[in-house]
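User: tokens in, sequence out, please.
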């Protein structure tokens, strides 16, 4: 009957993986999901990645009959406040946490930036000296 055909599985999602589960703000989070076509014909489907219930990314998946693939979504956390987030793809869900960068990491970053600036200035001075005759 038509109704049972409507219930037939098309592209089936499984194995949702969120990596890493904890990320410093500014880092990236990858979401992996396996998609398999369990029908006898090619199937297309638009996957909607939801972050705390809001659609943040979409991906059109096209699979031949009987084939499967792994789709990777990338989330950039620089716009996210520290806290716990839920990602959803259809009936699958996972969580990750955004944490504030540790103060030691920030200090190291500042020191590296200062060293790079000093080095650039030094190179500039050496070049300037070399030009004088």
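Assistant: Sequence out:
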């Amino acid at each position: 009957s038509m109704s049972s055909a409507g219930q037939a599985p098309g592209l089936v999602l499984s194995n949702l993986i969120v990596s890493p589960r904890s990320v410093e703000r500014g880092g990236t989070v990858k979401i992996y999901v396996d998609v398999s076509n369990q029908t006898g014909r090619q199937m297309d489907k638009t996957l909607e990645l939801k972050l705390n219930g809001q659609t943040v990314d979409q991906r059109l998946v096209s699979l031949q009959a009987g084939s499967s693939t792994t789709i990777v979504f990338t989330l950039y956390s620089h716009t996210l406040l520290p806290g716990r987030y839920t990602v959803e793809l259809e009936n699958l869900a996972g969580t990750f946490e955004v944490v504030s960068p540790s103060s030691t990491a920030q200090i190291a970053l500042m020191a590296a930036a200062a060293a790079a600036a000093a080095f650039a200035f030094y190179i500039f001075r050496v070049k300037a000296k070399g030009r004088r005759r």
